[in-house]
Design brief:
With about 300 residues, the chain is α+β, with helices and mostly antiparallel strands. It is built from eight helices and six strands; from the N terminus they run βββαββααβααααα. The termini are close together.
Amino acid sequence: MISSMTGFGRGGAQTPTKRVKVEIKSLNSKQLDLSLRVPACFREMEVAMRNPIAERLQRGKVEVSAIVENIVAESTTTVNIELLAAYKAQLQQMGETLGLPEPNDWYQLLLRMPDAMKTETAALAPEDAQAFVDACNEAIDALVEFRRLEGEKLYGFFVEKIDNIRRLLAEVDKYEEERVPKIRERLEDQLSRLSSIEYDRGRLEQELIFYIEKLDVTEEKVRLTAHLNYFMDTLGPVDSLPSEGSGKKLGFIAQEMGREINTLGSKSNHADMQQIVVKMKDELEQIKEQVLNVL
């Protein structure tokens, strides 16, 4: 069974003073592209959480965002009194030197000065750090489950498309018996019009056999069937546990399927068979698009 790279997960945890919420979303990507947006108070936890997130999610463009709400009133921001006193002294000296009146509202003026307020970063409490870890793990679990459910949908999609290609490939057989005689008849008809040219009938037969053998598509049908079977084997049974790392392998198999379908089309030399090849290409392109979402 396969898993999708696309998903969303949300987790939360609470301490006596804080409520932590974490959201993780994932899109398809060739490698792991991880970005974390966390509040300043949890910045020291960022490095510690990268490894478990990378191990669990493996691939995808992953964005992690965390929000912290204070349950009880607490403030780490205070008025920078020493700095404001220095500002006021300088402004008063400037007024005396330039003969300017003092401002009517010192509070409004001083509080608009740079660094009027100072924020002290409190040490991260152990229970708050654990709450952040718990919220992250819950979000990761939710994302993994989301990926699993999306993988089930992709599985059904792939099975349908592979069956469609098998059905189209089976339709090729009914044109095989009439295709070779028609090609032979067309060539002989064209040669019969060249009445002024003499040719060796035996040599012509040899060349026709050689030419028709080059148009034989038996090997392409056999190889394409093998690729279809390999694709299904890689998907695994529908009731099996989700497997990881299948996306790239399925992509390679789809490429090989495309080569055989293209060769089948170039050898067909038959309008109805070429229409079948076009339909197979359409089914395969849909497979390739969705394979990009497989983990």
